[in-house]
Give the backbone structure.
Amino acid sequence: MIAVDHLIFEYPGLRALDDVSFRIDRGSITALTGPNGAGKTTLLRCMAALDQPVSGAIRIDGIDVLEQPRDCHRIIGYLSDFFGLYQRLTVRQCLHYVARAQGIDEQDCDAAIAGVCKRLHILERLEMRPGELSRGLRQRVAIAQAIIHQPQVVLLDEPASGLDPEARHELAELFLDLQRQGMTLLVSSHILAELEAYCSDMLVLRQGRIVEQVAIKNRNIASTPYKLSLATPIYNLKEILNQLTGISLLKIETDQRVWLTIDGDAMQQHRILKQLLALDLPVCEFALAPGNLQDAYLETIKQQP
Amino acid sequence: MNINPEFQRQLYLECSQARLIGIPLILGAVFTLSYFADNHRLASASTQAAMTLFLIITLLWGARQTMDSVVEEYRDRTWDTQRLSALSPWQMAWGKWLGSTIMVWYAGLICLLVYLIASDPGQPLFWPCFYATGGALLVQGLSLLLGQISVRQGHTKTGSTLLIVLLGVFIIAPWNRFASFAYFQQTTAVTWYHLRVIQQDFELISLLLALFWCSIGNYRLMSQELGIRTIPWYWLAFAVFLIVYLGGFLPGTSYPFSLMAFMVCISLSYIGVVIERNEAIRIKRLLTYLQQHNWRRSAEELPIWCVSLLLATPFALLLSVSEHPMRNLGSSFHFYPLPVLLLLLRDLALYLFFSYGKNPQRALSLTLLWGVLLYGILPGMFTLAGQNWLAALFFPLWADSAGGALVCALLQTAALSALLFRRWQESV
């Protein structure tokens, strides 16, 4: 659905995107993560044809974004981190304008506005002005603007920033709903726990480079680490564990908590547990570590130079 | 009905009930006053008041409205929303141009109506109204153009830009004569390329041509803002148009024509560099495309001032080999075309040098400051001190020979180009 090849973008004295290439499948929700200044917003703006890169190519559903930006705008929705709402118009007028500007016929506008507002629970706010709404509601109006024309691809820059937990949950539900309708979403965010609720893939950007693209929902269970917790610290824990066969140590914390991988299935896990008990280690937990997006992200970042 | 969405949005913003009622009430009060001044009838005082009010409203308020229609978007951070729409540049441009001034025209039409009612029967009414309307549209269009240029240079305050518009309005203030019927009864003719045309007709055509080029300018700037790639052919076409248009007023010899063409190209180069988005990275893109032999992309990245600069070069060469009626403009001041061209290049380099710096918004004021130093203070200082050769070093047109002037101009251009190149390298 989205193909980015060798994208380079430069600000004066700074290469913000450095030979960025990746693919995003149709119908996926991809988390775009990375530290501050990694180039996330710049990448999204280039993909939305708002900024022009030095070189490279971006294709969205076969459309060359750099060559045909206006065609691209018909099939994408973009939510900027500052929403871009007209403060002097009512919510209905804002949505009507965007609907018409995106090529929806006048007679279809009311239905489009009603549909998107129902989905975002803002039907009763249509006659209010954005300035009279809370941040969460303003953000919903901004999302409504971005998706009113039923785009195939939605690019969202920090959509959950400043939202309360309930609003974030609703946002996650909305994104999953959009995914079910066949839309492809690329969501930039720092809040990894929130992204985990709905993202199927993760793109990690660091210093303008893609350092990893991983499929979160399809992560291989065999590579999932196990966590071993002991009741008390054991001084020479590393040496003791190195005596065991069929395990690989990943990390030891305070001689009391260990992350390791095992070669095999649940029976192998049982055999290793028996060995641990035979060594008289005070085991109080030995189970699959509850892996999350944050771990995956930190792991990725740590592995990079 | 599918009307232009941008125009419709402007209607939402502008057409409030308070304005729809308030404007006729205020204008009604003014015209009641003029009615009493005309001894209880609508006559000359009302005609004058109506046309003056029309000009004030459509020129001043109208100019502000069209400029704000762009600058406010940038200030309120809604410009990206507009850029992401599927509207064409032309829809966007005329939607803003006519939409933001809808109440201006509402008030203006009331004034014109009073003007028509108050005028004496038998007076030519169509032409004054047509000229005044066309002039107002032109000023509003130019203001929209300035708004777009302000936005691309990151200026979100309209005050200083509006000052320029006001200056322009005062320059075109002679249009007030359209309120005078006597002007339209004149039969003065204008000679243009041996054609004799009635002055009013010629001015009318000129006004329509100015409106055409103003529309083209707005369209092209809006295209660029909306991410549409453009080749600067329109700048070339505009330069050629100006040369042909102004050439019609000159005597039939080649020297004045070449001189005028040269001055037009120089002026357009200065204007071009100021209105262009001067990003160091753009030059890098241009060089990358040139290396790739991607000529179309190279043309798209070519700054417009390059076009007028290139066009100026043959005229400079032609003037250099022509007999110079204007070689000596004073006892020590001369006109050397090639050094003038090099000085233009130096000034462009100076402006770009500041544009690639940390405060590109100050590039124009800093360049003007340096211009005053290089063209006025330093040469003047050395001249008064009797050091003419030093004065010529800073302002080569003081040099006694064309060769000396060329060397001085070359030295300055080379020095500035080296500085510019270093700064450009630091920027990319």
Notes: Residues 2-215 of chain A form a domain with the Rossmann fold fold (CATH 3.40.50.300). The interface with chain B takes residues 10-13, 48-50, 52, 54-55, 67, 69-70, 73-74, 76, 78, 80, 82-89, 93, 96-98, 100-103, 105-106, 145 of chain A (CB under 8 Å). The longest strand of chain A covers residues 14-24.
